[in-house]
Amino acid sequence: MADKVADLSGDDRAKRIAELKAKMQAAAQKAKAAAEHAPEQPAAQTKPQPAPTAEAVQEAPRQEVVAEALAVKEGAPAGGSPTNGSSGNGAAAKAEVLSAEKIAAPAPAFVEESPEEKARKEMNRREFLTYAWGGLLGLVTLQSAVGLFFFMMPRFKEGEFGGIFRMGPESALPATDAPPQPETTGKFWLVNTADQGPLALYMVCTHLGCLYKWEQANNRFECPCHGSKFTREGYYIEGPAPRSLDRFEVTIEEGEVLVNTGRRILGAPAAESPARVIPA
Ligand code: FES
After folding, report:
1. What are the structural domain ranges in the chain?
2. Which residue has its alpha carbon closest to ligand 1 atom 3?
3. Tell me: domain 164-272, CATH 3.40.50.740, correct?
4. How much is the average pLDDT of 105-111?
5. For residue range 41-54, what is the model confidence (pLDDT) as tens digits?
6. Most exposed residue of 135, 204, 210, 233, measured as fewest CB within 10 angstroms of its CB?
7. Where are the beta strands (DSSP E) in the chain?
């Protein structure tokens, strides 16, 4: 070998490295060709020489390149100044070594996967996707079930506005001509009537939301805000209210009167009220 990398610089150094790389490639091709032709050698030879493997052929130039690069590295002083003045500073020498080792390192052999291995990996992927979709579906189902459960649950407790009010046995209701009884917590007037049974009239006026009052002297409800008037049964009589009084649903279960303040029944339009006073 005429020149070493350590003694060269500039274009000569690059040229020398290129030569070494070409040499390595040629050696690799030669080893490959030798390995391919090795089984064709006649078996009658007295002592057949084993064909050099690709690794062995590649290893020789690799060792040569690394040895030259290491020589450059060892030739550089600790302070970074070259001893022979031709190979740059110490950092450049280290880079040269690393580069040379990288070039000379044999490429990892490609190992093709067997069909069984490919099938196993494919199965693992499918299993993962199956489990992922199953988990997602289960999560969505659980979320829907929880939402439905809370939707079905009564939102108001018994005895608070929006919930059920137990008004006692039907036999204990006030007389059909007795004054309405206020239930302020439930916001309704409890009225017992002869033809419709017990009624629960919402305490809020259907005009603009004032709280109307029971006027015993006039035997009717009267709103203090704008003067709307309603019968004992909640029918519109006169005033600016657009309809009769609203009611809550009343049921009798096992002889007990229940008022559901969560179900409001709107009053009929004022024009349909049988108690409406038609101005002359
Ligand atoms: Fe009752 Fe206007 S709010 S009449």
Report:
1. 5-37+52-104, 164-272
2. 208
3. no
4. 63
5. 444 444 555 555 54
6. 135
7. 164-169, 181-183, 188-193, 197-202, 213-215, 220-222, 229-230, 236-238, 247-253, 256-265
